[in-house]
Amino acid sequence: MGRKVRRGGLIGGVVVVVVVAVVVVVVVVVVVVVVVVVVAVAVVVVVGYSSSNSSSSSSSSSSSSSSSIIIVVLVVVVVVVVVVVVVVVVVVVVVVVVVIVVVAVVVVVVVVVVVVVSSAAIAGDLVVVVA
Length: 131
Hints:
Blueprint: H1 2-56, H2 60-130
């Protein structure tokens, strides 16, 4: 009976780890989508603003240079955000995999120890009975 409770507890722990991992991945994906949408909206607004500015402004050279600087800055921001998000996702996935592997190893070790101890106890009982 004790063995079943222990295994159930370990299996429950594995289930909790997997559920937490899935929740973390979903949260990271939602954050990535929100960041991409916000950056896309910002790019559209800035490009629209700079194009309307350059068409209405008399000094087209200064407005085009400022709009190109803004676009370069936005591209750099997008690249940095994407790199950071990718690094975070990779780190989360690696941590989740390591935790799952560690929990699986612990489960296997506990099951092996329980089986060995049980079989040793049974063998000891048999030896005592035979003796």
